[in-house]
């Protein structure tokens, strides 16, 4: 998924949550503490969103758990740089760098990554990393105990 597709995907996510909660753009912008023009631009897929604004949106929607994580990951995918969600900056470097380190150790050229998608299905949580040559790497997450 390229950046523009990620922005459109995130736009649909905002619109879905806003309409599900029966909020107008103006009502939602007031709840989130962001301008109505920003909300409108985001819903059109016209621009990326900062980590700080994404946190305001997710709080305004009152999303928790996996829904919160998925929303923030979709928000992070709207930007070319600084894709780390704000709270991830507080994590130990080992946690943040784990996937990158494993990819490098297995011989993946990080410049060949073309997309990244987080999914939850019956089997659990997955991070699918697409490569420019058409291959995909799937990282499964399991919680034990």
* Secondary-structure content class: alpha+beta
N-end to C-end Cα span: 34 Å
Q: What's the CATH H-level homologous superfamily of the largest domain?
A: lambda repressor-like DNA-binding domains
Strand tally is 3
Q: What is the H-and-E element order?
A: HHHHHHEEE
CATH top level assignment of the largest domain: Mainly Alpha
Strand content: 15-25%
- Widest sheet: strand order? 1-2-3
Which shape, going by the Cα principal axes?
Answer: globular
CATH topology of the largest domain: 434 Repressor (Amino-terminal Domain)
Mean pLDDT: 83
> How many discrete domains?
2
The number of helices is 6
Largest sheet composition: 3 strands, antiparallel
Which range best describes the helical content: under 10%, 10-25%, 25-40%, 40-55%, 55-70% or over 70%?
40-55%
CATH architecture of the largest domain: Orthogonal Bundle
Give Rg in angstroms: 16 Å
Low-confidence stretches: none
């Amino acid at each position: 998924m390229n950046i523009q597709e990620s922005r459109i995907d995130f736009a649909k996510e905002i619109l879905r949550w806003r309409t599900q909660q029966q909020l107008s753009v103006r009502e939602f912008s007031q709840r989130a503490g962001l301008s109505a023009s920003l909300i409108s631009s985001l819903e059109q897929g016209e621009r990326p969103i900062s980590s700080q604004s994404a946190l305001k949106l997710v709080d305004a929607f009152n999303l928790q758990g996996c829904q919160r994580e998925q929303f923030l990951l979709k928000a992070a995918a709207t930007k070319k740089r600084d894709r780390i969600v704000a709270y991830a900056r507080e994590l130990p470097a080992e946690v943040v760098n784990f996937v990158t380190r494993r990819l490098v150790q297995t011989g993946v050229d990080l410049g060949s990554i073309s997309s990244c998608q987080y999914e939850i299905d019956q089997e659990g949580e997955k991070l699918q990393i697409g490569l420019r040559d058409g291959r995909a790497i799937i990282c499964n997450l399991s919680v034990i105990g």
